[in-house]
Design a protein that fits this description.
Elements lengths: L11 E7 L5 H9 L17 E7 L3 E7 L7 H15 L4 E7 L6 H12 L4 E6 L19 E3 L8 H14 L17 E5 L13 H12 L3 E5 L4 H7 L6 E4 L4 H7 L5 E4 H9 L2 H7 L11 E5 L11 H14 L4 E5 L13 E4 L7 H14 L3 E3 H8 L3 H5 L6
Parallel strand pairs: 1-3, 1-4, 4-5, 5-6, 7-8, 7-9, 9-10, 11-12, 11-13, 13-14
Antiparallel strand pairs: 2-3
Length: 401
């Protein structure tokens, strides 16, 4: 996979934070060598987080996020500050841009407290060194080792900053994660079941299917792909037994019936839960499905935004399965994309998509928020397997279970 082909959720996310007119956007442009953000002397020019996928040496594929000023004012300012906090949920490396002519403010220190509270690695970028006679180090006693002096105007220190970011990325590099390759051995063969119906994206495969295929190819595992209606015929045509069948969760029930008991079975969504983190919590969350009562509130949340179809899984199929299984009539709330409630009070169960469009930090934050609030959370694949009585079987291929 080339650098330009790396999906956003798999890239290192670098967030630029700070006060209005500290020079965040100017530093972003200097670091990237591109005019990604509008620069102005007017306070509050950046009104929403600006995201850009690109290659940044020496790191490689990244997502750069320029955020609104943390000291924004008024009702709109409060919304912008909230957006800034939401960006932290997806940030791998945070850069606090400080106006060196002013020094660290109380709000700057509030941001560093947030970074530490959320275990986000961070650097403090002391901007405007071209005005060195006015530059002060006030407020930097405990973070001097994290400080990098730059001038976005002259370019001074920008290369050093990029090297520090690269070193930070290396120091905080996460362990290599696998969707499926670590569950297989040399010579194993896999069947992928990909239904094509009115809800399937025309002309392409959904991201988890693409990622599993690419990982299998990268590790030299052979696979065949078929629709759920063709699985039995496909298995009959094979001259060897597959080690594993991976299905789209919507077809779980039919595929389970057509899969011999001596062939392991799981779903793309369950593999994604394992990959993104929080699988154990979501398995526990599945227990709540059976005990739902009339009037309970179920939040159905998706990490992407898409046009809702007449048989949409989130708004149509999932409520139908839940009601058929629980024999209850819950109330439903729906969120999509970056929207996810801060306050989970009053929610009895969260049913979440596989999170393929969210990075690891975002998905883990949502799971942790649910656990902290005492709200069970389960993803689509685990929920569907539980409601069709095949959860234990679908978890059997996973080494951890």
């Amino acid at each position: 996979m080339g650098l330009n082909d790396v999906v956003s959720a798999e890239r290192v996310h670098i967030g630029f934070f700070g006060m209005r007119n500290a020079g965040k956007s100017s530093v972003v442009n200097a670091v990237t060598g591109q005019s990604l953000s509008v620069v102005s002397d007017v306070k509050g020019t950046t009104t929403d987080p600006v995201k850009k996928s690109m290659e940044l040496l020496p790191i490689g594929p990244v997502v750069i996020i320029d955020t609104p000023g943390y000291d924004d004012e008024g009702a709109l300012g409060e919304l912008r500050v909230q957006k800034t906090k939401e960006v932290l949920n997806q940030t791998d490396i945070a850069l606090l841009i400080v106006d060196g002519t002013i020094g660290m403010t109380g709000l700057d220190r509030e941001l560093t407290d947030l970074f530490r509270e959320r275990n986000v690695p961070y650097l403090i970028v002391w901007n405007k060194t071209d005005l060195s006679d006015q530059t002060t180090d006030v407020g930097l006693t405990e973070d001097k080792d994290r400080m990098v002096r730059v001038s976005a105007l002259t370019g001074e220190g920008i290369n050093t900053l990029k090297e520090r970011i690269g070193a930070f990325a290396s120091e905080n590099r996460k362990e290599e994660r696998f969707l499926v390759a670590d569950l297989l051995e040399r010579g194993d063969f896999v069947v992928l079941v990909v239904p094509v119906d009115e809800s399937a994206p025309k002309g392409r495969l959904i991201l988890p299917q693409q990622q599993v295929m690419r990982e299998l190819l990268d590790h030299h595992y052979a696979f065949v792909t078929c629709q759920d209606t063709d699985l039995s015929e496909t298995l009959c045509k094979l001259n060897m037994k597959p080690k594993l069948i991976i299905t789209d969760s919507q077809a779980f029930e039919r595929v389970a019936k057509d899969t011999p008991e001596d062939i392991m079975l799981t779903s793309f969504s369950i593999l994604m839960a394992r990959y993104k983190g929080g699988l154990k919590q979501q398995i526990r969350g599945a227990r709540k499905l059976a005990s739902l009562k009339d009037g309970d509130t179920v939040l159905i949340s998706e990490g992407c935004t898409h046009h809702r179809q007449c048989k949409d899984i989130g708004t149509v199929k999932m409520p139908g399965w839940i009601e058929n299984y629980s024999k209850a009539k819950p109330n439903y709330r729906f969120t999509s994309g970056g929207d996810f409630p801060d306050d989970l009070n009053g929610i009895d169960l969260i049913v979440h998509c596989g999170g393929c469009m969210l990075n690891e930090n975002q998905m883990k934050t949502r799971v942790q928020s649910a656990v902290k609030a005492g709200v069970p959370i389960v993803n689509y694949g685990i929920a569907i397997a539980a409601m069709h009585g095949i959860l234990e079987r679908s978890l059997a291929p996973l080494k951890e279970y």
